[in-house]
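Hey Z.,

So I finally got round to the nicotinamide-adenine-dinucleotide thing we talked about over coffee. Here's the setup:
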Amino acid sequence: MNVTIVGTGYVGLVTGCCLAEAGHRVVCVDNDESKVAGLQKGVVPIFEPGLEELVSSNVAAGRLSFTTDLADGVREAKAIFLALPTPPQADGSADLTAVLAVAKQLGKHLPDDYCVVINKSTVPVGTAEAVRKAIAANAKSEFDVVSNPEFLREGLAVKDFREPERVVVGVTSKRAEAVMRELYASFINASRPLYVTDPATAELSKYAANTFLVTKISFMNEMARLSELMGADVDVLRQVIGADSRIGHKFLYPGIGSGGSCFPKDVRALKHMSDEHGYDFKLITAAMNVNEKQPLVLVDKINEHFESDLKVKSFAIWGLAFKPNTDDIRDAPALVIIDALLKAGAKVTAYDPEAGGHVRQIYADNKAVKIVDEKYQALKAADALLIATEWPEFAEADLKKVAGALKQPVIFDGRNIFQPKDVQKAGFAYYSIGRRPVGAA
Ligand SMILES: NC(=O)c1ccc[n+]([C@@H]2O[C@H](COP(=O)([O-])OP(=O)(O)OC[C@H]3O[C@@H](n4cnc5c(N)ncnc54)[C@H](O)[C@@H]3O)[C@@H](O)[C@H]2O)c1
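And the result:
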């Protein structure tokens, strides 16, 4: 099928590559000229395992191309995906400016034959209809709008797209459903179902999924706090409750909160939608509040250890991305921690395998923040090491080398990557989340 993807970011580029790999002919459109120029030369602007290979092989096979020209990009399309940003506005609602602006332009450029416009962005209930109206204002040919929210996880995006746990399509016609079935034919089977529903249910399902996940994490973060107060070990607790198949082991890891481009914004957007309908969704407010404060739990531990005297202290931070295997730093807990430390007068030297460049740009004018390119380099003369992202290379670190480089052997582990007994044996004072501190005076 001839497919156009408008918006070539984390979702759009992965969608485009995976559909091209499945045999569709895909044109990716983006209004960022430098991004498109780079992609045309094979430069992939984001870090996502397996993506670079898919871009180069599908470009070489003639199934994938990139352009900034929307009219040209959609000329032959039967399916047009919108994978555009929907960032949060000050009141928490999703900003639909990009989605509606592209929809308005699309009306003028729709192909002569019937096509479907597929909303892959995470958008509030009612957006499919708003997009339909915006296109219809200028359209001369027939089209349908489909809601097809994306559930991929950054870091596993290619695998998630190609082996989805489910695909959801919200349609208003059998004709649109047939196009969606054809598009996804090679990705779905008996254990990877395609759910066909109305656009409102499809749109809401994405917010429901993300809000549930944040609630699960926030629940565990509260259990972690309670475990600390009661002298229990949240790590064991997590395994015990996770063994119950009704609960499951996934997403039960306490830490410094979940960030990223989706969770915080989607939770706030669902709260906003809920308020608009006059419904006080109490769980969302609680989950959101716990998550927002969670990065500061680590800062509280640091203050306690150093008796709230962080001036002239220097901290090494391992991990800046909001989670491992991505370079995405949107709403990353590490940034909240850095800002709190800077406010308290401390200095920070940080390392991340993929996200360092982005953070360097944010603090370019701040001499108190240094980003280095190697993990042990970050430790030089630091008063303590903080773990903010659970990249595998951190868990495999040589603890003797870490202790030797730090001014004092102290670790504040926001992701519980080490076993307390191991770090204690290596001579550290070690603070983690929901487990008893070890080695502290
Ligand atoms: N990142 C994720 O893990 C993820 C997962 C599921 C759903 N989503 C949702 O998918 C949507 C896209 O997210 P993302 O992370 O891919 O965003 P992104 O910022 O990485 O990509 C968006 C792309 O759209 C382009 N763009 C913006 N305005 C444009 C316009 N007018 N015309 C053409 N291109 C334009 C940008 O240049 C950018 O390349 C959001 O609604 C997000 O909530 C994201």
